[in-house]
Each structure stands twice: as structure tokens, then as C-alpha cells.
Design brief:
By secondary structure, this protein is α/β, with parallel strands linked by helices. It is built from 11 helices and 9 strands. The chain has a 9-stranded mixed sheet with strand order 2-1-8-9-7-6-3-4-5, sandwiched between helices. It is globular. The structure holds S-adenosylmethionine. S-adenosylmethionine binds next to strand 4.
């Protein structure tokens, strides 16, 4: 998934027709995440501020690289952002940065002399601690094709400018991002677990809002299955649960008629948003909400 060249053509309708270039969005996540929502940051923050009240909590139950929570916390728009993620490897990174020995992690990132052999050795070795798992995960995320860490994804062979795996390895940038997250960690919480449990648990507070970005696997041609270790989601059940939350939510999907039918079934508002990808191809995403969008 390209990190810097996705451009958003419109955000939630006529209000902003200007193209938002993601290169201008502050990148706070240590991950380059498949299906990452950096392009949605300006639109999401505007949506959050357009609510008639200031939410106390933002719950992001399919956190992945967490860019929406990180950006919300960075701008101090809610008291606490609660990230939830089921993938154990991804979870180890958030647990290390928020609750563990993040300094060890930063030190490993900055001191490794990265070669293909060194990367392979670390990636293939068992991890004895959460911190070791986090280091392995960050390394794998940076050097595997498209940031895809799901099994079977190979090491990037020929990166930009022929520099191989080094082309995606920016230790100082990663260290800076981790330091920034540490500086706002009083506004961040992380739970390793199942999205559905947390939506259920947090749904009764009207001052809690949700950003929900599930793996998209409803249609056969969608890539969710090969991008994530956990990709099976009951999309109807998810919408049914969101229908019952007391606060506001924003739900995102790749554009698909089946999802429009789902949004209509539950009486949600939705908008089709065009995106400009790497090769100037246009693709569409859906923004679905119980507010107007
Ligand atoms: C589309 S990605 C989220 C990307 C994220 N919005 C970002 O910007 O990086 C979906 C994530 O949901 C996680 N996931 C899948 N099933 C889950 C579940 N039942 N509970 C929690 N997380 C889950 C996947 O591991 C993946 O990281």
C-alpha cells in the first residue's frame, strides 16, 4: 500500500473540494499499514470537531497502524483514545510503546546494521519478550512488500533506487515517531482483543465516539484476506452493534454495493469518496455514519 501518494479528492461532499495530499498529513504511526487511513485524517478530525459535543473517548476497535487515534490524541480532541487490535504482533508494538520498554525498542531500531541477512535472522528467530516481538514486527512491516506482515509475504527485494530493504528503513524517523507517541501516551490506551467485545462494552456512553475500519472481506475480490492475519468479520453483526451504540460513529469500507445495502438496511448515512492512488487510478471508499457525512 503506497504511503505517501494517495490523494483524497473530496471530503464528505461539497464542503471541501480541494485535493488533500497525504504527504502533508503528519505521519505519526510507526507502521506503514495496508489499508491505512492517513488520507482520512483531515476529514476525520473535521468530522470529530463538527459533532455537537466534545467526545470524552474515541474507540478505534480495528486499530492496525492507529493513525486516526494517534492524530486525534496528538491534537487533543478527546480525553482518551482507546485502540483495540487482535493481531498479536501488531499488539506487541502498541504495548511496548505505551506500557513497555520503548527505549529498548528505539535503541534496537537505531543501532541495527540492516542487511537482508540481519533482517532474516531477526524475523525468523523466536521472540522472548513483548519488546522483542515489537522490534521484529516493526522490522517485518518495513521490509516486507507493501507492509503486509501476513504469512507468505516476502522481503522487499528491490526497493526504491535499488537500495533493497534499506529503502524502507528510516530508523531516525521511526525513533522520532515513537518518541512523539510516548509524549502523548496519557491520552492513549491500548487493548489486545476482539473489536466486538469493546464496541459492546463502550457502546453505552453517549460521549464515546467510534472510528471503525474493519478488514474488508465481504466481496470475493477484496484483498482483506491476504493483507491481515485476522480478516474474518461478520459485517452485518458489526453494523447491528453500531446501530445500538449511544455515541457517534464513523465506519469505513472499500466501495461496494453490498456495503451500501448494509448501510441502507440499518438506516445509516453514507458517502462515496473518490481517492487518487499511485498510478493516478481512481478508486472509491465509503464513509458510513449515524451523523450526516
Ligand atoms: C483495515 S485494518 C485497520 C487499518 C487502520 N485503520 C490504519 O489506519 O492503520 C483492519 C485491522 O483490524 C484487525 N482486526 C481484524 N479482526 C479483528 C477483530 N475481530 N478485532 C480487532 N481487530 C481486528 C486487523 O488485524 C487489521 O489490523
Amino acid at each position: 500500500m503506497p504511503e505517501l501518494n494517495m490523494q483524497q479528492l473530496t471530503v464528505f461532499g461539497d464542503e471541501q473540494s480541494e485535493i488533500v495530499n497525504v504527504a502533508k498529513v503528519k505521519q505519526l504511526s510507526p507502521f506503514r499499514y495496508p489499508g491505512g487511513k492517513t488520507w482520512l485524517v483531515p476529514g476525520f478530525l473535521r468530522w470529530l470537531q463538527s459533532l455537537s459535543y466534545k467526545p470524552e473517548y474515541l474507540v478505534e476497535p480495528f486499530a492496525g497502524g492507529g493513525i486516526i487515534s494517534l492524530s486525534t490524541a496528538y491534537h487533543g480532541l478527546v480525553d482518551k483514545c482507546v485502540m483495540v487490535e487482535k493481531d498479536e504482533d501488531v499488539a506487541s508494538v502498541w504495548k511496548t510503546i505505551l506500557y513497555g520498554d520503548w527505549e529498548w525498542l528505539v535503541n534496537q531500531i537505531q543501532s541495527i546494521n540492516l542487511t537482508v541477512e540481519a533482517a532474516r535472522k531477526i524475523i525468523n528467530a523466536p521472540a522472548d519478550s513483548c519488546e522483542e516481538m515489537a522490534f521484529k514486527t516493526i522490522l517485518k512491516n518495513r521490509v516486507c512488500h507493501g507492509g503486509v506482515m501476513a504469512n507468505g509475504s516476502g522481503l522487499l527485494k528491490y526497493g526504491e533506487n535499488g537500495k533493497g530493504i534499506l529503502s524502507r528503513w528510516y530508523p531516525d524517523t521511526l525513533a522520532k515517531r515513537i518518541n512523539t507517541i510516548v509524549s502523548i501516551k496519557d491520552r492513549l490506551d491500548f487493548f489486545e482483543g476482539d473489536a466486538f467485545d469493546y464496541i459492546q462494552e463502550c457502546g453505552n456512553n453517549e460521549k464515546t465516539c467510534f472510528f471503525v475500519d474493519p478488514p474488508y472481506t465481504a466481496s470475493k475480490k477484496k484483498a482483506g484476506k491476504r493483507l491481515y492475519r485476522y480478516s474474518e468479520v461478520d459485517h452485518d453483526r458489526l453494523s447491528r452493534m453500531l446501530k445500538n451504540v449511544k455515541g457517534k460513529f464513523m465506519l469505513t469500507y472499500d466501495y461496494d454495493e453490498a456495503i451500501i445495502n448494509l448501510a441502507e438496511k440499518y438506516g445509516f448515512n453514507y458517502k462515496k469518496i473518490p481517492m487518487k492512488g499511485t498510478h493516478n487510478s481512481i478508486r472509491y471508499e465509503l464513509i458510513i455514519s449515524n451523523t450526516s457525512v
